[in-house]
Amino acid sequence: MARDYAAFYRRLSAPFRRHSQLVTALRVANRGVEVIMYGAYLVMLAWLVWLGFYQGWASVWPQLWRLVLIPGVGFVLLSLVRQRLNAPRPYEQWPISPLITREKTGDSFPSRHVFSATVIAMAAFWFDWHWGLPLLVLAFLLAIIRVVGGVHYPRDVVVGAVCGLVVGSLLFL
What we know:
Keywords: Membrane, Transmembrane, Transmembrane helix. With about 170 residues, this protein is mostly helical.
């Protein structure tokens, strides 16, 4: 961690603080990426359910279970690790005012938002790389947003993304 994270964060967030529209755009982007990612996951699940009705459940059940079980178990395990570590958020340790308003304390490491977005992007790759690539870019964007927004340290989002890549890659086994 930087010796003076507050100074680093002030430099990082300064362009946004100079233009209130950028703060609004950052918050909208944060929420928008969340909605897109969770929406994409629901579309993938719905697609498999539709295929089950159309093509028969025997060919779809294994895929549907993988798409639910692997990300779900990964999410639960990551949540347990986060809870156990209970790492403080940047605004708890440093005199900073985050751009993304958050009242929660602890559970910063690793980032569950970035983990989830990355796992969903990997699931989309499992379906079709045309879906996966843009969603992976959005997961990367979410990682940047969470750091610039002041709710995570860079290490939180990097580890969240790596964990998401590892768990998501299990879909391909």
